[in-house]
Design goal:
The chain has 260 residues and is of the alpha/beta class. It contains ten helices and eight strands. An eight-stranded mixed beta sheet has the order 1-2-4-3-5-6-7-8, with helices on both faces.
């Protein structure tokens, strides 16, 4: 899978193709999750090659794409993708995202109406987590410990190690992308989601702790034309792996519902 490199909106995207482009087939644009790349979505794109032509994106800063020129938020990613999509011939185009890729997709649909005909959002992130009392207490204590530790640890390598110790796994793995990660996770897409006007299929795993099904129910209440499906027994990444066949079946059904 040899990608082409596209410059758009100030960023550079590595974009791979799967399937044969034909006027009768819809186009799918795939947006991967945080700290992932197009490779994570390739098996599903290949499973759908008979039904659609696919573009698989490496977002700037991931996979084979260089980092963006600044501290981008999801709107910056969305605007850059939208500028590229506008350069393509008009087609029936569906956005399929996983986690972070859903954040970008929601921004595209809200900020650039009509650019996509529908979206499949798998384990969509973008709303504040609702946590139980014990979880909130643990999180508060962890944040307080970090704040107190900063008082005696000067800025530099030791402070960086402190951030890594108290940060999440995604934060620790973000490295040079940490400023973007911090900006992205602090964004709320609640208001943005209400502006999405295309049909949306929300797919969540019942065992997902990163983006639990209750987040999907809130997105369903915010997005005007949204359907929610919860697949039993799968977690955040399981929807792409052991649950891939069930996810692909739902996508196929959604594509048929959009057929002219």
């Amino acid at each position: 899978m040899e990608p082409e490199f596209v410059c758009s909106g100030g960023g550079t995207f590595a974009i791979s193709h799967v399937g044969e482009s034909a006027a009768a087939l819809p186009e799918i644009v795939w947006g991967h999750g945080w700290n992932q790349s197009a490779v994570a979505l390739l098996p599903m794109a290949e499973s759908l090659a008979r039904f659609a032509f696919s573009y698989l994106i490496d977002f700037p800063g991931f996979g084979e794409s260089p980092a963006p020129p600044g501290v981008w938020g999801t709107a910056d990613y969305a605007d850059a993708v939208a500028a590229w999509l506008r350069s393509l011939p008009r087609r029936r185009r569906i956005w399929i995202g996983h986690s972070f890729g859903c954040r970008v997709g929601i921004q595209i649909a809200a900020r650039h109406p009509g650019l996509v005909s529908g979206m499949v959002l798998i384990a969509a992130a973008g709303l504040a987590r609702r946590r139980g009392i014990l979880e909130r207490c643990r999180l508060h204590c962890r944040r307080r410990a970090f704040q107190l530790s900063k008082l005696v640890v000067p800025e530099g390598p030791k402070r960086d190690r402190l951030r890594s110790h108290f940060g999440s796994a995604d934060y620790r793995a973000a490295a040079s992308m940490r400023p973007i990660f911090v900006r992205v996770v602090n964004e709320s897409l609640a208001g943005t989601a209400t502006k999405v006007d295309c049909p949306v299929l929300l797919i969540y795993g019942s065992d997902d702790r990163d983006t639990p099904p209750e987040m999907g129910r809130r997105f369903q209440s915010l997005i005007p034309h949204a359907e929610l499906v919860v697949l039993e027994g799968f977690d955040h990444l399981g929807l792409l792996h052991e649950g891939r066949h069930q996810t692909v079946q739902l996508i196929q059904r959604f594509l048929k519902s959009l057929s002219p």
